[in-house]
Amino acid sequence: MQTTIRSAISFQGVGLHSGEPAKLTIRPAMAEHGIWFKRTDISLGDTLVPARYDVVESSPLCTLIKNAAGVSVSTIEHVMAALAGCGIHNALIEIDGPECPILDGSSAPFVRGILSRGVRELTAPVRAIEILSPVSVHTAHGWARLSPEQGTTMSFHIDFDDKAIGVQDKRLNLANGSFVRELCDSRTFCRASDVDAMRAAGKALGGTYENAVVVDGDKILSPGGLRHQDEAVRHKMLDALGDLSLAGAPILGHYEGHKAGHAITNALLREVFANPDAFRIVLCDDVMAARLPGAGVERHEVPAVA
């Protein structure tokens, strides 16, 4: 059955790119509501923005959604990944500014907050998007593909010149709470050589060594080092789950990313929905539901670092 959070939970911090203070509150919602953001700092006009792939705007380094009135919310990928990874299908997310708080750079604080409140089952069945035939998108920078699979699985490949990252590959079945155990605490990362350029472009103004992993060649500059030896590819998978959740329903299929980022994953969803023979909407029985992200997750599985 569809779910929501049992009671509201709030998070406060700064936006990674804006550097501005932000408060975000996840509230329960009824069945069939889906995930919506509401800008509480705007008093007039349409302040609701759907968490949906077709309202994603081109934005470097993060996922930004915007409604027809021009109201936007950015850097939504970590909270969206947390909701998907905890199996939350319906929620209203109130936010008092244009960018979600970055917190520690991962999804773990959101996951811990959601699971501390608990997941409430609703009275409507879960619909899933079942991939029937392979769909892919390719760019000069990378590619991504969705292929038929009985459950929700993911594989990812990255390749960076910096030896602190280098070449990393990971494959994961996202059922049975594996997102919470394996991916949710992996932080966003960047190269020290890119920081000045990002800030000159008005990005990463809220970035610190505490909310991002900063690498310089073979060195990890962030105190405490890495949470996982392959933290970078795990974070890329975290981002991909958050971006895939903008399909509006869980996906039964295998996602494969090769040096893919937010724009490529969004282009992939658009390509899927432009090809109606490539997918179908299914009502999940108990067997299908057990294969979805969030199935069987328990609060004690959240990594202690969160």
TrEMBL record:
It comes from the Bacteria. GO terms for molecular function: UDP-3-O-acyl-N-acetylglucosamine deacetylase activity. Its EC number is 3.5.1.108. Pathway: Glycolipid biosynthesis; lipid IV(A) biosynthesis; lipid IV(A) from (3R)-3-hydroxytetradecanoyl-[acyl-carrier-protein] and UDP-N-acetyl-alpha-D-glucosamine: step 2/6. Catalyzes the hydrolysis of UDP-3-O-myristoyl-N-acetylglucosamine to form UDP-3-O-myristoylglucosamine and acetate, the committed step in lipid A biosynthesis. Transmembrane segments: none annotated. It comes from Tropicibacter oceani. Keywords: Hydrolase, Lipid A biosynthesis, Lipid biosynthesis, Lipid metabolism, Metal-binding, Zinc. Belongs to the LpxC family. The keyword Hydrolase applies. The keyword Lipid biosynthesis applies. Its cofactor is Zn(2+). Zn(2+) binds at residues 78, 235, 239. The gene is lpxC. Pfam families: LpxC (PF03331). The active site is at residue 262. It catalyses: a UDP-3-O-[(3R)-3-hydroxyacyl]-N-acetyl-alpha-D-glucosamine + H2O = a UDP-3-O-[(3R)-3-hydroxyacyl]-alpha-D-glucosamine + acetate. PANTHER family: UDP-3-O-ACYL-N-ACETYLGLUCOSAMINE DEACETYLASE 1, MITOCHONDRIAL-RELATED. This is UDP-3-O-acyl-N-acetylglucosamine deacetylase. It is an enzyme of class 3 (hydrolase).
